[in-house]
Structures
1.
Amino acid sequence: MKFAKIDFINLLPVTIYMKKNIKSNQLKAIIEYKKSYPSAINKKFKSRVVESAFISSIASRGEKALDYGIIARNEVKSVLVVPGEKYEKDFQSDTSNALAKVLNLNGKVIIGDKALKFYHENNKNDFIDLAKAWQDKYNLPFVFARLSYNKNEKLLKKTMKDFNKRHIKIPQYILAQYEKRSGINKKDILEYLKGIDYDIKLKEKRALKLFFKLAKQQGI
């Protein structure tokens, strides 16, 4: 199974879980090798270079997917718009760029670890948290990515069947690595992860359906 992962802090619990539960060293190596940012992973998935991945929800339309994703039920802290006169997309994103348009927000979209750093280094009046803006408008969580697949459904289901965010403890040495890489302290990383969920249930499915409808209306 060729698996790709988004190389952001928000998938740390899933990454650690998969490393512990996948026995094949070859597969572990593939997971590490096929890591990148969301828009690049979307392209790899669509071209079938990889067989499964957390892909941007906007790219998951029409694709097979398990009921796992990257979900925010209030503010997300790592998907922001810095208000401005013109809309400016983040080249690493697909869903967040679309969400800014759906919410009719002008400005610069920033996502991922750099956005989380921006969140902690700036006044909250300097940016709009896109997940919070969506929640305020539609009273629904927002699903930024979905665990999609085009092959090896049974293996993927078997790999993920015991995943539970609450049971995942992130080792201190990994937190230290991400702290050094991102410039975000370990305490803020752990606090951020409390606001990220991964189980797609009824409300999340409603949110996806609404988002797809609104995106289509915008020609996305």
Note: The chain has a mean pLDDT of 91.
2.
Amino acid sequence: MKRITVFCGSSFGTEEIYKEQAVILGKTLAEQNIELVYGGANVGLMGAVADGVLNNGGKAIGVLPNFLRSKEIAHLGLTELIVVESMHERKTKMNDLCDGVIALPGGFGTLEELFEMVTWAQLGLHKKPIAILNINGFYNSLIQLTETMVSKGLLKDVNQQMLLVSDDIDDLLDKMKNYKAPTVGKWIAKEEL
């Protein structure tokens, strides 16, 4: 993997460990020569993961919608900042630039980005690993919900297993590097669009 997109909060949250792990993830990406693609802001966990990369000699590419420039202040130290016009264009660009995705703690935006990427994978639009760094059990309830979706017949087990989960950065990156996408798509192939 040459580039990983990280989705995460523009706030720090209530637990210091979220920021600590975001910085360590950035440092680990830099040490493994994996470039960061992320939302482009210098605030919250977004800024922490970017600083972790940049402070350790790595490269960070930000993708920021023009209308958020005043709310999510653009990180001025990035390797590259790409300004786009919409949230959808942001996700599309982040997908185009990366070889995999990691979600850190975040709010509605983080969940929306994560689930759009995993939905695209489920539909066969890409075969990239989609991962959750489950810091201090932050995503336990979400993981339980996906298991309920399977048990209630609304999600195939093979698709639920597409979400790679770990609370350990090195373990998560190993899972991503060894990921093999399911051979059975949901309904359509990319060529059909």
Note: The two ends are 26 Å apart (CA to CA).
3.
Amino acid sequence: MSLPPPRHSFADDAQGIAFGSFMAAVSVVLLTHLGFVTGQTAGLAILICYGTGWSFGPVFFAVNLPFYWLGWKRFGPTFVAKSFMAVAILSALTMILPRHLQFGAVHPAVGAVLVGCLTGVGLIALFRHGSSLGGIGIVGLYVQDATGFRAGWVQLAFDAVLFLVALTLRDPVTVGWSFLGALILNLTIAVNHRKDRYIA
């Protein structure tokens, strides 16, 4: 009989959340450099920034605030605390990194692939350590519990609306490249994120 794997230590979770948040922050800097959009709460924050000229960090932090209460009820205080830290780190890094990380000419196809991969790796690290970067998934789970409508479809519907709105702020070609990045992100998570592969 094999023993259960050891749980992540506090240090394990801290480095995992820091790594995931950093990867996601680099992705946001590249994504906004290219004028791309994305899905979920990050996509909502980016569209607000494009429409108003506000900075991504504070907007993303504020957009996520209503979801912590739902997260507390659905997943508990530990998940909320870790997610709050990840969102706070990402928000801060997106304000700091542009002073130290600038991109020149990046082909949209290369940018889309890189954005999808960076965000995917970052999110997988966060998921592995019991954290997240957004609240739409929590809403999806609540809808699924209440109505039986699958959480994945809720997220897909939200993202579809975001991309339609994006067409009013960005040209169709840019939105198309953005969609490629979102597709790669979701494929990266779908193929590589399985809870049975991870230490608790």
Note: Residues 47 and 165 are 8 Å apart (CA to CA).
